[in-house]
Design a protein that fits this description.
homodimer; 66% helix; globular; mainly alpha; DNA-binding; 3-stranded antiparallel sheet
Amino acid sequence: MRVLLPPMKLQPIDTSVTLKDHIYERMRAAILEMDLYAEDADLRLDERSLADQLGVSRTPLREVLIRLEQEGLLEVQPRRGIFVQRKTLTEILEMIVAWAALESMAARLAAEAASDDEIASLRDMAAKYSLTAQGADIAEYSDDNIRFHQRILDISHCKLLSKMAAGLFVHMHAVRRRAMGEEDRVAKSVVDHMGIIEALEAREGALASDRVRDHTMRLHDHVRQFWRAAEHTDISKGEAR
Amino acid sequence: MRVLLPPMKLQPIDTSVTLKDHIYERMRAAILEMDLYAEDADLRLDERSLADQLGVSRTPLREVLIRLEQEGLLEVQPRRGIFVQRKTLTEILEMIVAWAALESMAARLAAEAASDDEIASLRDMAAKYSLTAQGADIAEYSDDNIRFHQRILDISHCKLLSKMAAGLFVHMHAVRRRAMGEEDRVAKSVVDHMGIIEALEAREGALASDRVRDHTMRLHDHVRQFWRAAEHTDISKGEAR
DNA sequence: ATCTGGCATCTGGTATACCAGATAGCAGAA
DNA sequence: TTCTGCTATCTGGTATACCAGATGCCAGAT
C-alpha cells in the first residue's frame, strides 16, 4: 500500500437508482395530481399507454404498478384493468386511526429523544398560523398542517414510524383536499398544535402522546361526519369487487 | 326475464388468484423457514434458480420479489444479487415500537368495539398458560403469545391496524425464535396478558392501551439488552449499504 | 511475487413476443 | 325484433431474449 489517503476525494456514485425508481416517482406524482374522488374522474390506467408516455417498456412499469398496488394506491384486476383506488369511508377512517397510533407514539418518543432545536422547529412551523388562524388559506394550511405532523414523526427518530405513516400520507392528502371544509377546524387545529408543542417542550411524553392522538382522532370524527353528510357513506365504486 | 331465481345456485369462481399469488405464498413460507440470523445462513437468492425450482419464468417471480422487497423481507441490489434481509438491532427495535403503537391503539378500540365473546376468546388463549407458566415450552409459548397479540389487533375491528402489524410479524417471528430466552419473561408475560384482558373486560380503553404498550415496550427493552449482550450490536451485514 | 488490465461469465434490468381471459359488437337464427 | 353465439380485439399475465453492470480469474508486465 503506497498511499493510504489519496489526495483526491471522490464520493461514490449512487448506482442503485434505476429506471424503476424514476418511473415510480413519476407515477406517484401523477396519481397525486389526479383529482380522485371527483365524480367524473377516469380511474382506469392502461399499461401500454403509460409505457408509451413514459418511454419505457411494460416490464419495469409493471413492477412499479405492483409496488403502487402494494401501497394501496392502485388496484390491479387481472385481465380487466388497473385502477386508481378510491378508499371507502371505512378505509379512510382506519387510515386516520392508524396515523393517530403512529403519530402519538412518535410524540411520546420525541418528548424523550428530540433535541431542543427540533422541538423548536415545530414551534416555528406553527407560529405562521398562530395569529392569522382564520384568514389562512385552507389549502395552504392543509399542506403545512400535514408537514407539521410529519415533522413530529421525524423527530421521534424512529424511521419506521415515519415510513409507515408516509404510506398513509398519499391518501390523507387526497382526502383532505376534498374534505377539509369547516373553517373553524383550522382555528381549533392551531390551538391543538400549540398544546402538543408545549407538552413536547415540557418533555411530557404521555401528555404529548395523548394530545396528538386526541387531535388526530378529532379529524377522524370530523371526517366521519363530513363525508357522511356529503352523501358519501361509501365513496368508492361501490360493491365493484 | 323468464327466470328470476334459477334453481341451481353457483358461487362465482375466484379468478383473481394468479400464479404470482402462489409464488408469493411459497416464497414467503420458504423465507420464514430459513434460519435467518444463523452465522452461516446463505442469504443470497438467485432469480433464475428460483424460477427453475418453482417451474415458472422470471417475470412473475420478479414481481413477487419486488413485493417481498417492499415488505422489507428482501433486499435487491441491482446487478449484484437478491438477499434475504437481516435487520439491524435498531430496525428491530423500531419494529417493536411500531408494533406497540399499533397494538396499543387496537386495544383502545377493542375496549369499545369488541364483543364480549371476542374479549372472552382472549382469556381462553391466556388460560392455557395461567397455571403452567414456568413449565411451558418456550417456542410454543412464543407462537401462542404472538397469536394473542394478533387477536387484540383483530378484535379492534380495524383491518388496517391488523394489516400493518402483519407486515411486521414476519420479522418479529424470526427475532423471537432467536432472542426469546429468559425464562422469567414468560411468567411476566402471562401476568401482563391477564392485566390487559382485565382492562378490556372492564372496557377501560385508556388503561388497556397503556398496558399493551408497556407490555410490548418491555419486550423492546428486553431485546435491546439481550441482543447487545449477545454481541449483536449490529446483527446485519454491517455497513453494507 | 506482485500488480495491472482484459475478458469470460454471472446477475439483475429492460424490451419484446406471445398467451389467455374479458368484452363488446355483429351476424344469423328464431 | 330479439336472442344467441361467434369473433375481433383489448388487457393483463407469462415467457423469453438481450443488455449492461459487477466479479473474479488469469495472462502478461514489472
